[in-house]
């Protein structure tokens, strides 16, 4: 009996020790002190023009370091200092060490251009089926025709998926938990999208728990993106558990200002991790100065036009693939010429050293 009680006491002690060592949500003071050291953050959601999705970007056969280096060079010249980059768990399950090595290579290239990285783990957007290997060709004129969710609805049909995802997240976080080339971990992009709603809550809660157990030196977040009643529970959890508040807004300046004013009430730093849709009036010339004035990080969608087809609007395909007169997203063509010289000049001036 004494031995049994001793073992129980030891187990309880180890559990309490583990809980004590687990990272808690950052205090407002810690979050703001961290943010004050970063300077004004500005950048893009980055996908090299040669990759249609997360898998093609980081698979060994299609990991295009030459294109990544060239395009991040353009980003550095433009005055950008952060890129948001999506991962996919299938890359890890297929080749754990190779995948992590390619992430390290990417970070080396990025840091040489003065750019930090914001990695995204999970995503509820676009196509539900993903596979390792050759990825589909782009559908002419269709926005993000080859983008894939992670993990998608397989989490509901394959009982072991959650265990695999836990091992994946913890391994990647542990490997890079003290890497100062990484700005922040975006744990889940647009949870509840594609009418998943609260079906995404278990994974959202788990990925925050896994991150806290690893205790990375970088902050963690999951951005709010939809304020309808269907997302009330998700938004509440995201805002209550993120170290730094991140959000998406593709609307005109009045609505974006309202979003900033609303989220500032939490007292935490803000980073807009998706904006800029020209058709919607979410323009660099309007939104970037607002975010700079408010000291909000500004990360727009898209950089170089390529296989993702994000110069085309979400809901307006152009079947013949003809370039639209007004691009929806993106800044440059694959040859480095800009969609708009005036736009690029404006961004460079706003990001010029001494004007930060």
Here the CATH topology equals TIM Barrel
Largest beta sheet: what is the strand line-up?
5-4-3-2-1-8-7-6
Helix/strand order, N-terminal first: HHEHHEHHEHHEHEHEHEHEH
Which overall shape is indicated by the principal axes computed on the Cα atoms? globular
What is the overall pLDDT average?
Answer: 94
Main beta sheet, described? 8 strands, parallel
Find the count of extended strands (DSSP E, 2+ residues): 8
**Poorly predicted runs of 5 or more residues:** 1-21
Percent of sequence in beta strands: 5-15%
Domain Glycoside hydrolase family: 142-301
Pfam families: Cellulase (PF00150)
Protein name: Cellulase (Glycosyl hydrolase family 5)
Signal peptide: 1-22
How would you describe this structure to a colleague?
This protein is α/β, with parallel strands linked by helices and 356 residues long. The protein has a single domain (35-350), classed as TIM Barrel (Alpha-Beta Barrel), CATH 3.20.20.80. It is 41% helix and 12% strand. It has helices at 2-21, 28-36, 54-58, 65-78, 89-94, 96-112, 154-157, 161-176, 201-214, 232-241, 253-264, 284-293, 341-350; strands at 42-45, 82-86, 116-123, 182-189, 220-221, 245-248, 270-274, 297-301. Strand 6 (245-248), helix 11 (253-264) and strand 7 form a beta-alpha-beta unit. It is globular and about 50 Å long. Mean pLDDT is 94; it is low at 1-21. Belongs to the glycosyl hydrolase 5 (cellulase A) family. This is Cellulase (Glycosyl hydrolase family 5).
């Amino acid at each position: 009996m004494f031995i049994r009680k001793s073992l129980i006491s030891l187990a309880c002690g180890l559990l309490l020790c583990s809980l004590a060592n687990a990272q808690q949500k950052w205090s407002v003071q810690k979050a703001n002190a961290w943010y004050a050291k970063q300077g004004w953050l500005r950048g893009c959601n980055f996908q090299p023009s040669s990759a249609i999705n997360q898998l093609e970007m980081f698979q060994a056969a299609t990991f295009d370091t030459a294109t990544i280096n060239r395009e991040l060079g353009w980003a550095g010249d433009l005055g950008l200092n952060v890129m948001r980059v999506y991962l996919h768990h299938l890359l890890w399950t297929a080749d754990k060490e190779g995948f992590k090595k390619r992430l390290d290579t990417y970070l080396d290239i990025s840091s040489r251009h003065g750019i930090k990285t914001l990695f995204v783990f999970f995503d509820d957007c676009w196509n539900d089926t993903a596979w390792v290997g050759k990825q589909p060709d782009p559908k002419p004129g269709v926005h993000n025709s080859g983008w894939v969710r992670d993990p998608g609805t397989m989490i509901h049909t394959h009982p072991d998926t959650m265990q695999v995802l836990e091992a994946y997240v913890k391994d990647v976080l542990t490997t890079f938990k003290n890497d100062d080339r990484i700005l922040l971990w975006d744990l889940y992009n647009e949870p509840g999208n594609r009418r998943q709603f609260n079906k995404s809550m278990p994974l959202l809660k788990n990925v925050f728990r896994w991150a806290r157990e690893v205790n990375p030196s970088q902050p963690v977040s999951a951005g709010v993106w939809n304020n309808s009643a269907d997302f009330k529970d998700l938004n509440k959890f995201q805002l209550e558990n993120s170290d730094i508040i991140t959000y998406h807004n593709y609307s005109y300046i009045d609505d974006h200002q309202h979003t900033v004013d609303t989220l500032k009430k939490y007292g935490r730093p803000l980073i807009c991790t998706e904006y800029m849709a020209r058709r919607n009036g979410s323009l660099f010339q309007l939104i970037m100065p607002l975010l700079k004035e408010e000291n909000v990080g500004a990360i727009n969608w898209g950089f170089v036009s390529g296989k993702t087809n994000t110069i085309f609007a979400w809901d307006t395909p152009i079947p013949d693939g003809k370039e639209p007169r007004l691009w929806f997203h993106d800044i440059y063509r694959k040859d480095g010429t800009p969609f708009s010289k005036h736009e690029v000049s404006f961004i460079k001036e706003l990001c010029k050293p001494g004007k930060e």
